[in-house]
Structures are given as structure tokens and as C-alpha cells.
Amino acid sequence: MKLTDSRAVGSWSFAPATPSTIGGCAFHGIRYRPVLRLKRFRSVALASLLLMTACGRAPRTSLSLPGSEEWHEFQGTWTAAGSRTIMRLGGDRLASIAHFEGSLLLAGASRPGVGFRSEAILLNDSVTGLVGRAIWTDDKGDQAFSELRGGGTATDNKIVGTFMGGTGRYSGATGTYEFSWRFLLETEDGTVQGQSIGLNGRIRVDSPGKTPVAGGPRS
User: Fold this and answer.
1) For 102-111, how does the pLDDT look when each residue is reduced to its tens digit (9 = 90+)?
2) CA distance to 63, 118, 137, 145, 171, per residue, from 168 (Å)
3) DSSP secondary structure letter of residue 172
4) Same structural domain, 49 and 76
5) What pLDDT is recorded for position 24?
6) Interacting residues of 168 by C-beta distance below 8 A, sequence separation 6+
7) Mean pLDDT, the chain, whole residue set
8) Are residues 44 and 88 in the same domain?
9) 47 and 140 in a common domain
10) Is the pLDDT reported for residue 132 higher than 60?
């Protein structure tokens, strides 16, 4: 919209700069006269100052979690699909590298968000266990990073994630979460799909300069 002619938008109008326009906002019903009484001049100056402040003030969006120094507990379900390459190390020992992408839905009164896109890269050895990295991305594009470790075997399928910061509202994030994993689909060409079982944890964002407090999911 060109700001040349006066056009009303709500209770404001945009007009060319005139003696009755200050800071791009038009003041209706106020006319400057050569002589003004001191009291009226003060009233006009005060009104102008208030309106100029209102015109120049832009809304700010917080980039931190509400109550950022508090723990935000959550439960949820993580579903993902991807590809896996398996290497046989003799006998029953296997090693694999997998890349997963999927979605994460969280529940709980203090959850940090409702839905996230997820990505994870995993290296698993059926003897030494699993290590990996994961990224959760919320609907605003802010990301939480975490490290994954676990037994990675049929008898010990528990995986623990440890938050290690992020971007935006998750900068400085700490906390942990845990879950077990079950495969819903495994094909010969390496395509896999799975879902978490019993995912729960908690997260907090510490103020700059504060020493992080170790935390983890409640049993």
C-alpha cells in the first residue's frame, strides 16, 4: 500500500507529512495555531509524545521457554522412518548405521511444545551399544539438540537422550529423556520404520552465566 493518500486502517490513518502529522501517524482534531495557551500546549505535547511512542513501539516475541529456569516435564510418542546399513562382525555380532526422520508428539501440562520434526543419526553395535545424535525442530524452526546412548540390543533396548543446547528458545537447554524402540517395518533393502515406547523426560533452559543443574526423567 502506498502511503500517499490518507487511508484509514482501524483507528489509524496514514497521510503525507503535514504540520499535523508526527512520526508517520496522523493526529485528527489537533490544529496548530500561532498562539496557544501554555496549558493547552502542554496537553498537545503530551498527546503527541504518547502517540509517537505508540507508533514507534514494535511487539517483541520471547525466544525463551515460559518459566525458562523451571523444569518442563513431558511424555510423548516418537515415530520415524529411514534407512539402515548393517555390517556383520562375525557370529551374532552386528554393527549398523541408521538415519531416521519423523515426528514427535508431546503431552503434559508443562511440555516445551506439542509437535516437532525429528532427525537422528545412529551407530549401533550389538555388543557395545548405541550412540547417536538427534535434532528436534518445533513449528517456529527452533531446534533442540540431544545425544543418544543405549544398550541397543534385544535384551537392553533402553535409550537415553541428553539435551545439549539448541537454537532460539532452546539455547542452553539441559535435561534428559528416555524411551525404548520397536521396529514396525524392516525390509531387505534397509528401509526401516519404528516407534518409541514409554518416552518421557524433562527439559529446562538456564539463564546465561548459571551453572546447569543435572536432571533426568522421573521414575
Assistant:
1) 999 999 998 9
2) 6, 16, 11, 12, 6
3) T
4) no
5) 42
6) 63, 140, 141, 142, 143
7) 74
8) no
9) no
10) yes
